[in-house]
Design brief:
Helix content: under 10%
Low-confidence stretches: none
Number of strands: 11
Mean pLDDT: 96
Largest sheet: 7 strands, mixed
Structural class: mainly beta
Oligomer: single chain
Shape: elongated
Length: 121
């Protein structure tokens, strides 16, 4: 069974940087879209950034120019480089992937366990 394991969250001061990683493990034929979502206390989960299998990217307006999403297909891993962090970026960040386990399988949407990012002023 495919699992997503996230790492890289933590506490950082405003203006600082963090890099999140999410690695998929298990039987994997292909991974299509990969992305990062976040959920702040009392708010709904929102899309932060997404990347297609071909490398096309999409960002929330609030993070454009500060965050960069990338992927390493050989490692089945997606990254989120977060620069110029703000206090309002504080949230639990979740990895999201659409995974095809075998050539004949349907895509499955998977979520990571979440990693907390706290930005202090």
């Amino acid at each position: 069974q495919v699992q997503l394991v996230e790492s890289g969250g933590g506490l950082v001061q405003a203006g600082g940087s963090l890099r999140l990683s999410c690695a998929a493990s298990g039987i994997i034929w292909s991974i299509n879209n990969m992305g990062w979502y976040r959920q702040a206390p009392g708010k709904q989960r929102e899309l932060v950034a997404a990347i297609t299998s071909g490398g096309g990217t999409n960002y929330a307006d609030s993070v454009k120019g500060r965050f960069t999403i990338s992927r390493d297909n050989a490692k089945n891993t997606v990254y989120l480089q977060m620069n110029s962090l703000r206090t309002e970026d504080t949230a639990v960040y979740y990895c999201n992937c659409n995974v095809q386990e075998r050539w004949y399988s349907a895509n499955r949407e998977l979520w990571g366990q979440g990693t907390l990012v706290t930005v202090s002023s």
